[in-house]
Design goal:
The protein is α+β, with helices and mostly antiparallel strands. The chain contains 14 helices and 21 strands. Among the domains are: 112 residues, Uridine Diphospho-n-acetylenolpyruvylglucosamine Reductase, domain 3 (2-Layer Sandwich), CATH 3.30.465; 183 residues, FAD-linked oxidases, C-terminal domain (Vanillyl-alcohol Oxidase, Chain A, domain 3, 3-Layer(aba) Sandwich), CATH 3.40.462. Bound molecules: flavin-adenine dinucleotide.
């Protein structure tokens, strides 16, 4: 169920809005606007039916914070919904405008304000790949990034993502210290600019852009190691999982990715197939070059290393992380659209028990794909199993069984953040903050279902 969303009060509002933001780049061509109003919601057959016809009325592309403020003020005056958009790689229609209005393309705000050892201050439209490329000569890089690093923005990651490559060491964005500060513009007749520091920055984390327009972020950095992509082929998923767990718990081994994947998922890995023998489960890993020797010793009892190459993110190259996280699902979807996925978090104290119980319980519908991460101080697994889709009812049943077994599910088949974010969100008062920054409920309406606008 999506919450009621405001409609344009009066059709001439859009014309008046456009006149007020004269000089800010806009696109009105309905074909282009419709194409840009989409993200990767089609991963979910449920959302595909629900969202495929949704589009904004206009795309507006501010070039700096001053233009964002002009757009926010005019939108508030004319009560026009605003949906911020970064790279539009979100998976559940996070950047799809449910109530038309303005699609706020943030890609032109892509400057790095400054960086110093351990911290970067950067505009939200910067692509994570570009940020890391700019920082690499300084010896630093982002602590974590989604597997969509090459197309996704840092603003979209903070507002819509949860973690990814690097979370095996640093946990997700929700962990204290993984977002240092955010600057947001409010949607009011006279917009305010608010700097959220420390804990307060979590008010915009995975809020789907409903709690302010982010115009700057301060993110913590990690040492930029020479990373090596490694594939370990194993006779069983149990062995791939055990190898991953042993490395995840080896605190002296510097790593960025540990991904055990069951058969037959690697059959869909195209160019990597020579390193993924038929019938074998795999562990995908990114290991810092100085830790490779110890890594090899740890995994030796569990399988055979079939691939070992320096991570290459250059043009035309496919780094190993583009087979992990939600790229794993994509590799299968490229060949077969009958599958979808779930997003799970397994309890650290019953990790194996729950991973293997769910795999056995749903042997007919689900193929296991785990991601080792740190969560609230413990090593555990997040998971994006590939699921054979039959009906929504069957998906709901699978979710209910997981939850009854203590496995948390962030449901990727709904658009609301209350149902879709769950364990991925921090414990911040996002709804209270929304009342402060978006009194008319114009920011990405329909996504925060429990919010009732405090003003008309
Ligand atoms: P968008 O999709 O454009 O936006 C995401 C949300 O942020 C929207 O609600 C939007 O309104 C809001 N937003 C964007 N910019 C702003 C702003 N300036 N101010 C306020 N709100 C804003 N996610 C992960 O966390 N980890 C993964 O490993 C991962 N892997 C993926 C793999 C694939 C193949 C795909 C398709 C998706 C994956 N995702 C993953 C989801 C998504 O790619 C990431 O969350 C990504 O960081 C989103 O960034 P984006 O720029 O594309 O954001």
């Amino acid at each position: 169920m999506t919450a009621a969303a405001p409609k344009l009060r009066d059709p001439s509002a859009l014309d008046a809005f456009l006149a007020e933001i004269d000089g800010v780049p806009t696109v009105l061509d309905p074909v282009v606007v419709r194409r840009r109003s989409r993200d990767f919601f089609w991963y979910s057959p449920v959302l595909n039916a629900e969202l495929k016809d949704k589009a904004a009325d206009v795309m507006v592309s501010p070039r700096d914070e001053a233009e964002v403020i002009r757009v926010a003020a005019a939108a508030a005056r004319h009560r026009i919904p605003i949906t911020p958009r970064g790279g539009a790689t979100g998976n559940y229609g996070q950047a799809v405008p449910l109530a038309g209005g303005i699609l706020l393309d943030m890609l032109a705000l892509d400057r790095i304000a400054w960086s110093k050892p351990g911290i970067v201050r950067v505009e939200p439209g910067a692509k994570m790949h570009d940020i890391d490329a700019a920082l690499r000569p300084t010896g630093w890089e982002l602590r974590m990034h989604p597997s969509t690093k090459r197309t996704a923005t840092i603003g979209g990651f903070v507002a819509g993502g949860s973690g990814g490559v690097g979370s095996v060491t640093y946990g997700g964005l929700r962990e204290p210290g993984n977002i240092l500060a955010a600057r947001v513009v409010t949607v009011e007749e006279t917009p305010r600019v608010i700097e959220l520091r420390g804990d307060a920055a979590q008010k915009i984390n995975r809020a789907y852009g409903t709690t302010g327009i982010i115009t700057m972020l301060e993110m913590p950095l990690a040492p930029a190691w020479p990373w090596v992509d490694v594939i370990l082929a194993c006779d069983t998923f149990e062995a791939a999982f055990a190898a991953g767990k042993a490395v995840a718990r080896a605190d002296g081994v510097v790593k960025k990715l540990l991904t055990p994947i069951d058969t037959p998922i690697p059959d869909y890995f195209g160019p990597l197939k020579p390193a993924c023998p038929a019938g074998k489960a795999v562990l995908l890993a990114m290991i810092a070059e100085p830790s490779l020797e110890v890594f090899r010793d740890i995994v030796a009892p569990f399988g055979t290393i079939t691939h070992e190459e320096p991570t290459d993110e250059g043009a035309g190259k496919v780094p190993l992380y583009e087979y992990a996280w939600n790229h794993t699902t994509l590799q299968w979807l490229k060949a077969d659209r009958s599958v979808t996925y779930l997003q799970c978090l397994f309890p650290p104290d019953r990790l194996e028990e729950t991973v293997f119980a769910m795999r056995e319980r749903f042997a007919e519908d689900l193929v296991a794909h785990c991601e080792f991460i740190r969560f609230a101080g413990s090593v555990t697994c997040s998971a994006l199993p590939v699921v054979r889709y039959t009906t929504k009812e069957r998906l709901d049943e699978m979710i209910a069984v997981h939850e009854a077994n203590g496995v948390l599910i962030a449901n990727p088949h709904v658009v609301t953040l209350e149902d879709g974010s769950r364990h991925k969100r921090a414990d911040a008062d996002q709804i209270g903050f929304k009342a402060e920054v978006d009194p008319y409920g114009l920011l990405n309406p329909g996504k925060m279902r429990t919010y009732v606008p405090r003003a008309g």
